[in-house]
Amino acid sequence: MAAMQVAESLPGGQARDVPREPPPEQGSGFRCLSARLCALHPDDSSSARTEIHLLFDQLISENYDEVGGVAPEDVSALLVQACRLVPLNQNHLVSKVSQLIHHLLNRLQLLQNALKGIQSLLNGGKMKLTQTEELGALLAVLKKSMFHGLPGLNIELPTVLYPTPLPQYDGRPPVKPQQSESNTSRPTVNKKKKSKVKSRKIQQEEEEEESSGEREAAPITGSGKENLREGSTPCSSSLGVPSLPVEGSSMAGRDRVSTPFRSASWKKVSSSESDYSDAEGGMQSKMRSYQAKVRQGALACFLSTIKSIEKKVLYGYWSAFVPDTPELGSPQSVSLMTLTLKDPSAKTRACALQVLSAILEGSKQFLSVAEDTSDHRRAFTPFSVMIASSIRELHRCLLLALVAESSSQTLTQIIKCLANLVSNSPYNRLKLSLLTKVWNQIKPYIRHKDVNVRVSSLTLLGAIVSTHAPLPEVQLLLQQPCSSGLSNSNSATPHLSAPDWWKKTPSGPFLEEASVSSPKGSSEPCWLIRLCISTVVLPKEESCSSSDAGCAAGSIYEPSPMRLEALQVLAHLAKGYFSMAQVYLMELGEVICKCMGEADPSIQLHGAKLLEELGTGLIQQYKPDSTIAPDQRVPVTVVVMFWMMMLNGPLPRALQNSEHPTLQASTCDALSSILPEAFSSLPSDRQILCITMLLGLNDSKNRLVKAATSRALGVYVLFPCLRQDVIFVADTANAILMSLQDKSLNVRAKAAWSLGNLTDTLIVNMETPDPSFQEEFSGLLLLKMLRSAIEASRDKDKVKSNAVRALGNLLHFLQPSHIEKPRFAEIIEESIQALISTVLNEAAMKVRWNACYAVGNVFKNPALPLGTAPWTSQAYNALTSVVTSCKNFKVRIRSATALSIPSKREQYGSAEQYVQIWNALVTALQKSEDTTDFLEFKYCASLRTQICQALIHLLSLASASDLPCIRETLESNGDMVQSFILQFLKSGAEGDDTGAPHSLHERDQMVRTALEHIGSIQALAGDSAKRAIMDFLEDTLTICFDSSGSQVALLGLTDR
Hints:
about 1050 residues; mainly alpha; Leucine-rich Repeat Variant; 45 helices; about 60% helix; elongated; HEAT6; DUF4042; repeat; HEAT repeat-containing protein 6
């Protein structure tokens, strides 16, 4: 921590909350000498020159390493006075001034080097920030250094920052609502172009870049004028910026900022006031440059700190660096947005935005707790409200920075930061209008002169249409007229074309067909889709500027980054707002064909991604649970036309482009998104083309291609028109089994998923009246599939979860003709042992859930010797162990479901086995709320429902030898069991899909069936167990009937 100690001990740093007890003479030498120098007036006499010589020598000899409390403003004032006093013809004095400047500014360079040292330690992993005190001390030093020399600020900071989920509140009463901004006059500010006049060679390229982005404030008229005096701490209104319109004001509907932000009041100097010499100006510029570099170094060091600690630790310091909405009359806390809005250096502003972006990146879970509330009159502010307030303030400040910024590079960082904020904010829990303000402010920047600004603007629009999609607010924004938001005369972006510039439509044969895919009532076009299409396919309007990186020589289109981002936005729209994208389906098909036919692999790749999203959107419309009305769906005939365009275009060439395996993989994914109903309507040669290409690519040596092909085959094998094709299913099975042996885990995981799908197809084919598929399917292939699935069940969890699913399906599919063969006996035993082992192993819960499901599938095959085979007791013991002790309630539910599947008493084995299952279920019912994980409580009702159904099912199959043990359990736990069965009868299934009957009649009938079965049992003479069990069931039904009847009667009386 030596570097931190250096940073804390340097002059010019900000004062801290708890400074050390200063010695009596600390800093007095510098202040006395400075006061004496400032008291002098320009005088060319020898006595005056002698006194100045003496003062300069004393200042140079001062030990600044031991002197604290010297502010940068004091150093700057001293150097300005020194330059005023020294005549330029006095070479010796000029030399002394230069030595003094060098001596004082070297102290700042030491601070820069200290920060660089900390950054190097962080980047090298040599500084382990494990202790709260260490991290807090470092962050305190960095925050102090971030504002080093920033004009107009004099802040006090503690020596250590401590993590806290909530800011420190004082006991102020609730704040009255702020007045509408429309009732106050708004300041108007005129921009001035800053001339780049460099008087000395010491101003190098980096300083030139910074000065070109410095902000210069013009005189402000009106009541909104604010002066940032030295040493003052500005409140929200004194940041030098106008506020955005508040909700309810007359300006709120426009969602724009009419006056750009100006900062740096220390630069508010007219030409008449500028009586400093060129030497003085150069000295001030150098001082400002040094101070800016210190701030940049601190920000770079903070960025390294963010990357070296966990996000959950970082967010403990959220309120120290991210702004919150200030209360009326209270000062605005200093934060990263203070630098973004006030720092005169464009590079420093960009650094601050990079740090803020790094904080926001990956913050979705942290920000997800935010929630707006209208109840502000509370004794405390909830954490959720505080985070929501912080999100709103970030939106406000970034939009102010957006309209104020003149540097293109910093402007790009602002928009990227906004995109990060939008991607992580929970707009579904916040009040409306935040996205509307961002949307309307960013639209003009799509036509900015700098290509990087244009690209980042599209990125931001993409973030808006992809966050929590679909959002009603964004839906309305997409339907805005094309010219909305483009007529802002005060826009910071003067490079705009006519308002209808994006209405230009690319020519092509698809225009006549575009209306075919438009559902009724969707005539309103989406301007953003039109913009993106135009960006991708239309020639650029102007010649490529020098800033247009990615614009190849001789290219007639927009720069490649612009086109790629436009394709990305189209993909987001297709995914989140397909109802709008479907209007342009055929037109987008032409765009995809054009992109995939180009030479640039990146353009081809993004075209394939867009195709996949469109295909997925079409599939979603035709799912059984889709809420889209049939007349609002894209007709199957149009979908067939769309895919014919793809298959007759460049898609097959992209699939065979072995030079670009990533493109091949993406095209495979796109081809797997074809609508099954459309695939069956394709000409047979196009169907064969798809199947042949996929089966051929499965032999690819590239793992990406092989994984994508395996997945695509797993999709195709579920198609109704293909699943009964024995040859295709067999070819697909052989291809998948080959991929299961691949060295790549990703390939094996995809192949296992496809094997699970293929075995699902086998089960579906069992339910068809035509037995030809089962008869024709190869027994040898079944053996191969079983062996491969057993081997895969020992693989990693990603593979294992689908391998056990496939095992259950295969054992369910086995026909008596297979089971009778000796060669199947060993493989069946091995398969079941693999399932039992997986049920009991402490694997991922998804794996164990699938294993329980698979065992239940095995129980469904009446041809297997369940009840007599040696593995019967092992399977039941595994399931009863899980139902009573597994931490995950969904796995318990699935095991209880499996225990209720056998349909005959003999399948449960001996009386001892039956009783063991019964007692385990009763125990599981008792422990149905025993969990330390509160997330499991929501599955308690579902678990009890499934256990009750299993108990009633066992009663309906019980034999005479089972009754005594059942009576014994009911005598000791009858009240508990009865209470839960009554709940089951009254409420039915809840939560997880349990397969339990849902209607009251079905549940009641289950109990009556069990009662009738118990009554039909021929009990042994003198055995009272039968009567006790029947009394229990009759009593349960009576209580349920009386309770239901009384409820109905009560409701009837209430109605009357």
